[in-house]
Amino acid sequence: MILSLMRIKPRAAYVNATPRYMFKDDPFDYALPKFAHIGEQAVWAGEVAIDANNCGTTKDTWGYQMRYAEYKSAFNTVHGQFRTTMDYWHMARKFSNVRPELNGPFVHVNESSNDFNRVFAINPVQNSADPLWCQVLNETIAKRKLPFFGNPKIV
User: Fold this and answer.
1) Among 41-45, 108-112, 123-127, where is mean pLDDT lowest?
2) How far apart are alpha carbons 131 and 154 in whole angstroms?
3) Which residues, 6+ apart, have CB-to-CB distance to 43 below 8 Å?
4) What backbone phi and psi angles, to 5 degrees, belong to 47?
5) Is the alpha carbon torsion for 109, 110, 111, 116 positive or negative?
6) Could you tell me if 38 and 31 are in contact, meaning their C-beta atoms sit under 8 angstroms apart?
7) pTM for the complete prediction?
8) Which has fewest Cβ within 10 Å: 59, 60, 122, 135?
């Protein structure tokens, strides 16, 4: 018996996110090797989503990450018409003019959310359809006490 377990989840990407370097205005905001081991740094609210109603709170602390993470990796971004008219081509999360809260609904993917279902031609929740058809290749190796070539002979 062969059992295939799959988990399908969108990668973390945010339409309203802004890179951290856009908010740096102090010399201590930039990387200093002597400070690399002093603990985690704050994630500013503007890095996740810009609140259109209250732009003055972009440097409020939203969460924490490892020190100088913005120099070590970059997050996925969405640009141009993929943010508006072509948003059905990606599963990036869109926050509607409100900063998200760091809680359970933010961390867990809700399969009935519009961010997850907008890439499908039909809504799988409403139509009870299988949204993903997968072709799975299982490469198996079996050791059996059988000859590879069956040459006729008397045993």
Assistant:
1) 123-127
2) 56
3) 61, 62, 63, 64, 65
4) -70, -30
5) negative
6) no
7) 0.64
8) 135
d(CA 151, CA 144): 17
DSSP character string of 2-65: -----------BBTT---GGGG--SGGGS--GGGTTS--EEEEHHHH---TT-GGGTTSEEEEE
**113 token code pair:** 């959310």
Residue type, 24: K
Percent of the chain with pLDDT over 70: 78
Amino acid identity for residue 75 in this structure: F
Tell me which residue has tokens 């006729």.
152
Question: What's the pLDDT tens digit per position in 4-33?
Answer: 777 766 677 777 788 888 888 889 889 998
**For residue 17, with 0-12 CB atoms within 10 Å meaning exposed, 13-18 middle and 19 or more buried, which class applies?**
buried
